Amino acid sequence: xxxxxxxxxxxxxxxxxxxxxxxxxxxxxxxxxxxxxxxxxxxxxxxxxxxxxxxxxxxxxxxxxxxxxxxxxxxxxxxxxxxxxxxxxxxxxxxxxxxxxxxxxxxxxxxxxxxxxxxxxxxxxxxxxxxxxxxxxxxxxxxxxxxxxxxxxxxxxxxxxxxxxxxxxxxxxxxxxxxxxxxxxxxxxxxxxxxxxxxxxxxxxxxxxxxxxxxxxxxxxxxxxxxxxxxxxxxxxxxxxxxxxxxxxxxxxxxxxxxxxxxxxxxxxxxxxxxxxxxxxxxxxxxxxxxxxxxxxxxxxxxxxxxxxxxxxxxxxxxxxxxxxxxxxxxxxxxxxxxxxxxxxxxxxxxxxxxxxxxxxxxxxxxxxxxxxxxxxxxxxxxxxxxxxxxxxxxxxxxxxxxxxxxxxxxxxxxxxxxxxxxxxxxxxxxxxxxxxxxxxxxxxxxxxxxxxxxxxxxxxxxxxxxxxxxxxxxxxxxxxxxxxxxxxxxxxxxxxxxxxxxxxxxxxxxxxxxxxxxxxxxxxxxxxxxxxxxxxxxxxxxxxxxxxxxxxxxxxxxxxxxxxxxxxxxxxxxxxxxxxxxxxxxxxxxxxxxxxxxxxxxxxxxxxxxxxxxxxxxxxxxxxxxxxxxxxxxxxxxxxxxxxxxxxxxxxxxxxxxxxxxxxxx
Length: 667
Prior knowledge:
There is one protein chain. The protein is an alpha/beta fold. It contains 24 helices and 17 strands. The strands form 4 sheets. It has a 7-stranded mixed sheet, sandwiched between helices. The chain has a 5-stranded parallel sheet with strand order 3-2-1-4-5, sandwiched between helices. A 3-stranded antiparallel sheet has the order 6-14-15, covered by helices on one side. The longest helix is centred in the middle third of the chain and has 29 residues. About 0% of the residues have low confidence.
């Protein structure tokens, strides 16, 4: 009989707090099956507002999130949270002996009172405000209630904050849309208003919302605005009658300036933007139009190809996106237009220290270059441009299909099939209705994708924009009557451009999806190797580990020590031999990066700007490994180690990793 560790709950809004329980169960119980018991009680299920998701929906999104964390628990449905019954069920049906229950600290007493310890089941808790966990603020604030509220409010950023940060953007967005659609199918009131970074792709909208946007597309209150693909995003903030810079859309409100930025190629664009914004006339115009407390979001367009889209710019631009604080609505739009009109012909010339990685000296160096900068505003397309595509014709075909009988259940229309609430269907007919719903949903999506494709080909690619011409990422579509938004993006073209332009950098770093299959990059493979050799699983999520180390209560080594102690870490024997192997792995990683650099230099799919950017980025990653090897060579590694020596060597090595892979040369 196999041993198991169980976590139970309603999970009506799966959060980072739930994920931490499951991660703890897997991390601290090797050889055990991790069981997630989803409670599907009659009483709780009757409150649709607090319990909007069926067992099947919860199983789907928990599996999706757990797959992203490389955890594969056994998920089962239970009728209540009475653990003795669940323990017996697992023993009889699954041949699993539960030895431990992991729960939040607020649930411990209740479970102990169920007599679990008499059954041989140990009850362990995880503290939401644990001192050693630097994500405690997120964990403490996370709850199913807040997840549901974020879904109701269509607040993707709030939802993103409440789930594990290791979840990639695509999985997070898919999960967000799955859960919102589930709530909408149950007639739960949800809003369509969104914040900018959480704008939904038009083809991902529910079919009724999709129809609403297209039926109103030609109305004056619907604006379609150029979506720019920039190098950096920054904010111009007015406080105390003066201007400073921050990155508010990235939740970074600490002021910065050009002389405070790391001396690295990564920050060339942001450094130049700061210098340009110090121009006397630009400062004067911003001060005139902004009130104290206002902040304007700016997209920095640097070089001929600021990011993935090649705009072939004649100079660098500061594109005014929106007021991120202060002014709203039409007033905000008008002020941005007025600022642009005053500065559109004003060109600023600056001298910028442009940093690059010198592969000959294997060091970061710089040259001072003269750069020209200007102010721009993303274009709002005209009514004539909207009419490049007759959306009514294809929309009528979609609406006609929605009213036709469903091919699986002819008694209902396709629209009714899509909107089916399975909990209202008799159990014996649910499978058939689910098939009808899912099939109709996919067919509706094909109709939506066809319309979206026509909009991309005729409108997006049919307009010669002042910035970038006919090569664009997409359009942000905004309803000025209620400030809701969606977006039209050339996903296929943008994804292809991304894979081409960033391939070598991604394969030197974490990796990327290739033909639908994720392939680890050089750096990720290296850290996975360390995780296995030193038995520290969190190295597979190094950003999370480094964050814990950076934000602990002591200095770096003290924080490393605190983390290892909190995990009851026991180092393997002969750490000195393991570190020799890791150093060899680091040297092989450097060789792989050199090969990627050489391959990129002869890749005809990359233009010269992309080749230079790739060369710099690969140089920085190469330099990380070089610094690591140098740091390891300074460590006091000796043979005949005792347990204390092994432990201290691990601490010193993690310190080397931290300073090598998280710092930028500031000399």
